[in-house]
Amino acid sequence: MRLFDLVVVPPLWLFVLWKAPGLRAAPRQDRLMWTMWLLWAVTFTMGVPALRRVIDAAVGLASFTNLPVHMLSLCAMGALFAFIREATGAREHPRAWLRWILLGLAEAGLVAAFSATPLPDGESDLLTATRSPMITVYWMIFLGYVGYGVASAIRLCWRYGRQASPGPPRTSMQLLGLASCFGLVYVVHRLAYLAVAAAGWTGNGTPGVAGTTQVLLACTLLLLVASVLWPSLAEQARRLRLRRQTRAVRSLWQLLTAATPDVILPLPGGLRRDDELVLYRYVIEIRDSALALSRHVSAEHRATARTAVADAGLADDDLDAAAEAALLLFAVRAERTGLPPRLAEHALVQESGDLDAEAAWLGKVAEAIGSPVADAAADLLLGGAGSGTYAAARALS
Questions:
Q1: What mean pLDDT is reported for the chain?
Q2: In sequence order, which residues have a C-beta less than 8 Å from that of residue 384 and are 6 or more positions away?
Q3: Model pTM above 0.85
Q4: Distant-in-sequence, close-in-space partners of 272: CB < 8 Å, separation ≥ 6
C-alpha cells in the first residue's frame, strides 16, 4: 500500500463513519458534506493499487478502474460546490440546475472518450501512459469540470469568508479556500503536463507527475478535512479550557461561599452542563461573596497584607495575588469568628470585563490561598483585629 493511500484513505473513512450515525436528523449542509466525503472515500479506496487490480481483473479490462474513480470524483466535486454554497449562505442562482446538466455531460464525455481510448495496463498512470488524442480529450473534460468546481469554490470562500464571524467559522472558511487553491494547483499541474506532452516533449520527468499529483491531492483533502473539523475541534478546546478554569477557581469559590452562602444562585440541572455558564456563575458568586466580606477589610488591612507579602519576597503579580488571597482569608476567618463588619462594601478582588482574564486571575488567587505566605499574612491581620479565637477560625477555614 502506498504512503499516499495510508495518509488519505483511513482519515476519509473515519470521518464518514464518525458522521454517519446522526445523518438522518442532520441539516442539508451536513448531508451534502457527508455525501462528498463518502464519494471521496470510495474513490480513493478504489484507487489503491491492490484493489484496482482486483476490479480490473473482475471486469476484464485494463485500467478500467480509472473511469469510475474519475466519474465519482466529478460527483464529489459537485457535492463540494453544493456544500460550500450551503455553508456560505450564498444565494441560489435561478439557473442552478444547469450545474447538474453540466455534470451529466461531463460524465457522459468521460465514458465516450474512455471507450475510444487505447488503454495501457492497469499499473500505469492514465495521464502519462498514452499519447492518444482521445486521452487528451478525456483529461480535458475531467480537468475542465474540476477546475470549474475549485474556481467556483475559491470565489465563494473569498466572497463570504470575509463576512464570516471571527474565530473558528472564519478559520474554517479560510482552510476551505486554501484546500480549493491546492485543487486548482492540481488542475494546472495536470494541464501543464498535457500541454507539454502535446508539444512532443518526452523528457524523463514524467515519473514525477504521479508523485506530484498525489502530494497535491493529499494536501487538498487533508485541508478539506481540517476545514470541516476545525469548528468542532475549536469548540472542544474551548470547553476543555473552561473546565480547566472552573477547576482552578473552585476551591476559592467553595471557601468564600461557605462563609457567605446567601450569594449562591440556584442553577437548574440542565444548565450545569453549560461549561461557560458554570464558570460565569463561579466568577459572579466569588465577586458577590468578596463584596459581602469586604466590610471586614480596611485600607490599613490592605497595606499590612501587601507589606507582609512583600517581606516574604514576592513581587509583581505574585505579590498582588498573595495579598488578595490574604485579605480574603482574613475576611472569611473574621466572618466565621463573628467579628462585626464595620466598613462599607467595596471591591476586594480585581474585576475586568473579560471572563477569561478574570477567571485566570481568580485561579492565581485560588492557588495563592493555599500558600504559607498568604496564610501567615491572614494570621497577622486577624491577630491585629483583636480576636481571641483565631485558632478556632483557622480550623474552620
A1: 84
A2: 304
A3: no
A4: 278
